[in-house]
Every structure is written in C-alpha cells, then in structure tokens.
Design goal:
Blueprint: E1 2-7, H1 15-24, H2 26-29, E2 33-36, H3 38-54, H4 57-72, E3 81-85, H5 105-114, E4 123-131, H6 134-147, H7 158-165, H8 170-180, E5 186-190, H9 203-209, H10 213-216, H11 231-242, H12 247-262, H13 271-275
Parallel strand pairs: 1-3, 1-4, 2-3, 4-5
C-alpha cells in the first residue's frame, strides 16, 4: 500500500522551512518516498489559481484532470510512498478581501484528493495542514503581502488588515474544511507546538517517513526559510506602497530597503502573481 501525505499549507505556517528540509534531504528520502514540492507542483497550482478566478465546473474539472495526469506520471510502486507539499494548492495567500481566507478550499481539496484514484493499487491518504495562532498568522501574512513587489500593493496598517482577515479565523477555516470533507483523513499541527520536536516544523514529515534512527541521524535539520519582515520593516514597506512610485521604482525601493535590513533582497517571492496567467 502506498501512503500519501498531502501538505496544503497554510501559508506562512513554516511551509517554506518544511519544504526546504524535504529538498535538502531528498536523496535520503527518495529511496522509499517520492517527493513533489512547490516548483514541481507549479502547473497544478496554476490550475488552482485559474479556478479561483473562473469559479466554474470546467476549471475545476481541468484541475482534477491535471492532478490525475501528474499522479500517473510519478514513479510510484505499491511499496513507495509519496509526499506532496505546496501551500499554493489551496489558492493564493489571503488578502482579507473575501468572506474567508481560502474560499475555494473545499472544492479544490476534493478535486485534488479524488485524483489519487488514478493510482491502480490501494493508498492511504492523509491531508496535512500546518497552523499557528491566528494573530501571529495575520501579522505574518500582512508582512509578506507588504513586501511583495508586483501586483499586490496593500496599504492597510496591521490592525486594519487584521480586522479584514479575521472574519473567519485560520482555525475556523480548517474546521470548515474538515466538516465539508468528513471522509478525508485530515490532520493538523500547530507549528509553535513543534518547536521542541527533534526536527521542529519538519517533524510530521519525519514521522510519516518511518525511517530508522540511524538513517534519521544523517538528515539535515530544517532551516528558517522565507522569513518575513519585522513590524518596523513591514511598516516602512507599507509606506512605500502608499507612495506615488511607479511599479519599477517601487520594486527598486523595496529591494533597497530589504537589502539594508537583511544584507540582500531575500525572500521577495512573487511566484503567486507569476502563476495567475494561464
């Protein structure tokens, strides 16, 4: 039986750190478990984003068919497991402009998980969500949106953004997904609760692998990846967003500000915006 772990986020819940851990240790993982990380899953995320805009059955069917084709192309056997991890498979990072953070979550998760029927032998599927305290999550999402260089130019201060993004909390969003998909095995872990685990935020993936201690001793621990700006830096980035700078000038100003704080314009990941085009 193939065991499958489908990690769908949430955004800004240490997903990048977990994915960096999986990538760094891929050669130790691959003999027993296939990996599909964000870069490889980008075409599927593209379909998710397209469904977010179209909201019709044709786009949802296209997503399902693309996921089935992706799964069929994987090098799986009944004795080889599978980890997939991409927060963008749940949709775009929330902006607080809609009634809930992830309004397409339920139909998308249903379309993605039903695609595993393409595997010709029995499978044991677990859907995993990493979470965190709602206020910490909102602050992290706000900081990430503030630093983006293209397409997103938020001007809200933190408290205004918090009010908009708190119509449905992150944990209520997860509860809605669970309630709508009762037949799925859905698990979650608070990333703060994982701080004391041997592999930190990567511990759920390590537990899934079920490797002997001698093999785990060879693993590189997870890094802190895609760290967001602190409050002061985020406020400066918001001020830039409020300016009359044109897009190119804003891009350069944000790079310079980030570099002054971090030593380079690190972490400015605009993949979400790049994927919106079909």
């Amino acid at each position: 039986m193939t065991r499958i772990l489908l990690h769908l986020g949430f955004h800004k819940c240490a997903t990048s750190s977990a994915q960096a851990f999986l990538h760094e240790n891929r050669e130790r993982i691959w003999p027993t478990c296939a990996l599909a990380l964000p870069y490889r899953l980008r075409p599927i995320a593209n379909k998710v984003f397209w469904y977010r805009f179209e909201r019709d059955e044709a786009a949802l069917s296209d997503l399902h068919a693309s996921m089935r084709a992706f799964i069929r192309d994987l090098n799986l056997t009944p004795n080889r497991n599978l980890i997939l991890s991409s927060e963008n498979l749940l949709g775009q990072m929330p902006l607080g402009t809609l009634d809930e953070p992830y309004p397409i979550a339920v139909p998308v998760v249903r379309a993605l998980t039903s695609a595993f029927e393409a595997i010709a032998w029995p499978c044991d599927l677990t859907v995993y969500f990493s979470t965190r305290a709602h206020d910490d999550w909102v602050r992290s999402v706000w900081g990430h949106q503030a630093r983006k260089r293209r397409n997103v130019r938020i001007t809200d201060d933190l408290e205004t953004f918090r009010a908009r993004l708190s119509k449905v909390s992150l944990h209520d969003q997860l509860a809605r997904i669970r309630a709508a998909l009762p037949d799925l095995h859905i698990v979650s872990e608070d990333i703060d609760a994982l701080a004391g685990a041997p592999f930190g935020v990567a511990q759920p993936f390590v537990d899934f692998l079920r490797l002997p201690p001698a093999k785990l001793a060879e693993f590189t621990p997870p890094p802190r990846a895609n760290q967001g700006p602190g409050l002061a830096l985020a406020e400066q980035l918001i001020e830039l967003n409020r300016s009359d700078l044109d897009p190119d000038a804003l891009h350069a100003a944000k790079d310079a500000l980030i570099a002054a704080h971090f030593g380079s314009a690190q972490g400015l990941d605009d993949d979400e915006e790049e994927q919106v085009s079909r």
